[in-house]
Design brief:
Blueprint lengths: L8 H13 L6 H15 L1 H9 L16 E2 L2 H4 L12 E4 L10 E4 L2 H16 L5 E6 L1 H4 L5 H13 L5 E3 L3 H13 L5 E6 L1 H8 L14 E5 L12 H12 L5 E4 L8 E3 L4 E4 L3 E7 L2 E6 L1 H4 L3 E8 L8 E10 L6 E6 L14
Parallel strand pairs: 1-14, 4-5, 4-6, 6-7, 7-8
Antiparallel strand pairs: 2-3, 8-9, 9-10, 10-15, 11-12, 11-13, 13-14, 14-15
């Protein structure tokens, strides 16, 4: 039985998009349920998955009842809702040799850019108040990384002559940082990097004492050893970086190819999702047993993500990450990954 059959899927999608752009925190659950019903009907893969579970779409009335699509489907199927136009780009996960990669088509670039900008600025303030120096050597070697796409948009928005990506030109990056340390212009500096590259930099012979003179310096770890280094606990990595760079906290970003929203940690590994994102936990032995924040306490479970920005794919993703909810509603920690899951290029830290 079709829901909302009096209007076309395209009209429903446009209504949902407008509600998403104007989303208030109090409206999250209601919009998530509307998007669920839209995707359950108009996403062939998700619809078939729900049918195999013998779930009646009309009986789903709260977030913990929604079925979450296992993230592995992004490796084997094209995940799309409705009949979107040709994609702007197809993001692909990094993976390692011999491991299949996830593919996630971006059909609505303006929506993605608006959502990602809003999430960043909720946590850090206006992009124009920052110089962005981005150390992502492994990602820059590919042309379909969602992280590179997002950061290029951020660099464009920041409109700073000092903002740039860095592959092998580390000396140029350090010269820019030294200049900003002695010639502050009122902007903060965000140095973002993949884990192994930040560790390589931290363990070099460079004297980073000049970092103390950089106003509002934030160093952000995106996760990822990519087979370049031995896996370490997040706390070990951050202790090394803090000691070398002389900062009190290391920030982190939680995102992945299959998600269009992000979460940020301002320190201590505690993440706050963007306003289009919600984290639920599932029992490690029963993927259909979903905890809400009040019942989970300090219990560790599999991370299920509701990402409303995935309007044209699937907003309800069962990841292979393990997590624990923080004491503040909505916050969470990433504790590691399931033993049988593939290595993920964007977040390999074992916690």
């Amino acid at each position: 039985m079709k829901l909302q059959s009096n209007i076309s899927p395209l009209e429903i999608r446009q209504q949902l998009r407008q509600q998403l752009i104007n989303l208030k925190p109090s409206e999250f659950e209601a919009l998530a349920l509307r998007i669920f019903r839209y995707q359950a009907e108009n996403n062939p893969v998700y619809n078939k998955f729900i049918s195999h579970l013998n779930i009646d779409i009309k009986l789903i009335n709260k977030l913990t009842e929604i079925p979450f699509l296992p993230i592995q489907f992004f490796k084997s199927h094209t995940i799309k809702s409705g009949i979107p136009p040709e994609p702007t780009v197809i993001f692909e996960s990094s993976g390692t040799s011999g491991i299949s990669t996830s593919r996630h088509a971006l059909y609505d670039a303006p929506l993605y850019k608006s959502v990602s900008t809003s999430i960043f600025e909720q946590n850090y303030g206006h992009l124009k108040d920052f110089h962005l120096l981005v150390l992502l050597p492994s990602y820059l070697e590919r042309n379909n990384s969602s992280l590179v796409y997002m950061m290029q948009h951020f660099i464009d928005e920041a409109n700073s002559s000092y903002s740039n990506f860095y592959l092998h030109n580390i000396d140029e990056m350090l010269e820019r940082l030294k200049y900003l340390s002695s010639n502050p212009d009122g902007r903060g500096v965000l140095l973002m990097g993949v884990t192994f590259a930040l560790l390589d930099l931290a363990e070099s012979e460079i004297d980073f004492s000049f970092f103390q003179n950089i106003p509002n310096l934030k160093i952000m770890d995106t996760g990822g050893m990519k087979g370049r280094r031995k896996e370490l606990l997040r706390e070990e990595v951050h202790d090394i970086l803090k000691a070398s760079f002389g900062v009190s906290e290391i920030h982190s970003e939680y995102g992945m190819t299959e998600l269009l929203s992000q979460s940020y940690s301002l320190g201590n590994g505690l993440f706050t999702p963007g306003n289009t994102m919600r984290i639920l936990l599932r029992d490690v032995n029963d993927p259909f047993s979903i905890f809400d924040h009040n019942l989970s306490g300090s219990k560790t479970g599999g991370i299920n993500v509701i990402d409303l920005a995935n309007l044209d794919s699937c907003s309800f993703i069962e990841t292979q990450d393990l997590g624990r909810l923080g004491s503040e509603p909505g916050t969470f920690y990433v504790m590691g990954r399931f033993d049988n899951s593939d290595i993920r290029g964007c977040n390999l830290l074992v916690l």
